[in-house]
Amino acid sequence: MDGHDGPARRFQADRGRLRALAHRMLGSLDEAEDAVQEAWLRLERAGGDGIDNLSGWLTTVVSRICLDMLRSRAARREEPYGQEVPERACSGSPGSPEPSVSPEAEAVLAESVGLALLVVLDRLGPAERVAFVLHDLFGVPFEHIARILDRSQPAAKKLASRARLKVRGTPAVPEAELGRHRRLVEAFLAAARGGDLGGLLDTLAPDVVRRADPAALPPGVPVELRGARAVAEGTVALRERSRFAAVTLVDGDVGLVVAPRGRLLFALTVTVEGGRITSYDVVAEPARLRRVELGVLDPPERISSASPTR
Questions:
Q1: Residue 2: pLDDT over 80
Q2: Cα–Cα distance for residue pair 167/1, rounded to 1 Å
Q3: Could you tell me which of 275, 294, 279 has the C-alpha nearest to residue 179?
């Protein structure tokens, strides 16, 4: 198998890629570690004999494990909003997960992956998500994706195409205007993260209005704030949330999502007029969140390629 290297060494060489693959499919680093651990157990049982392309075999196995996990999640109608992912302990075998990461560390990882992408991927069906991640992010050929999904090759292509349209969303404003709105919302987010009151005031119209679902606010905080000073001060008071925020397409225009550990908690719809933010709404009620249309502003970059085998 793959020259003189044993399965444990070859597995460890592929582990980072497999975890990246599973993380994008599942949205949770802990669940990704579970999928990778299960792949190691299956490799141990298989013994490695007769596997000519171990990297491809592992890609196939991890993809099928993730597909099963996504289908199980959908069957349970798991509510993704605001849930905490349970921590896992670490054991010592080659396939065992590393120690559970802190929410802060996973937020950094989610940012490197693309927090907005993880949130939008959560809106896809299991087969759509697997097809999109494998083809668009990892460059796996459709003939192999079809075998993983137990679909025809044209059906696999259609799943990925449908997922791609959902991931990109549908802008409701012209491209040039979208770019201006994006720069403004990015400046707003940067100022919020830095607790920069002056920077926030530069992005807000004098008569700006901030409305929020009660579920988004601590007790005693009013659901509506009016005026640039009040809105800026209210934003600074809740600046911790901005660590888990990303600029994305929300209902066709530039907005924000807040997603601790990649799970959607709030969506912010932003209205821009005259180069300033004139209002923004914080959507937190689960029923309203499900109706919000989301999309990424940049096409996701392909990460690597692999050629799975049976």
A1: no
A2: 38
A3: 275
Q: Is the pLDDT of residue 83 over 80?
A: no
**102-116 pLDDT, tens digit each:** 555 555 555 545 888
Q: Under DSSP, is residue 270 helix (H, G, I), strand (E, B) or coil?
A: strand
Compute the Cα dihedral for 167, 171, 176, 182 and give only its sign: negative
Per the document, the length of the chain is: 310
H/E/C letters for each residue in 159-221? HHHHHHHHHHCCCCCCHHHHHHHHHHHHHHHHHHHHCCHHHHHHHEEEEEEEEECHHHCCCCC
Q: Which residue has the tokens 């007029």?
A: 273
Count helices and strands in the chain by DSSP H and E runs: 12, 7
Question: What is the secondary structure of 111-173 as a DSSP string?
Answer: HHH-HHHHHHHTTS-HHHHHHHIIIIIT---HHHHHHHHTS-HHHHHHHHHHHHHHHH---SS
Portion of the chain with pLDDT greater than 90, in percent: 68
Domains of the chain are 7-122 (no CATH), 175-295 (3.10.450.50)
Phi, psi (degrees; rounded to nearest 5) at 89: -85, 165
Give yes or no for a contact between 185 and 217, defined as CB atoms under 8 angstroms apart: no
113-140 burial code (b ≥16 CB/10 A, e <16): bbbbbbbbbbbbebbbbbbbbbbbbbeb
**Cα(168)–Cα(298) distance, rounded to whole angstroms?**
8
For residue 219, give both structure tokens.
Answer: 């007790």
* pTM, entire model: 0.81
| Beta carbons within 8 Å of 122's beta carbon, 6+ residues apart | 27, 80, 262, 263, 264
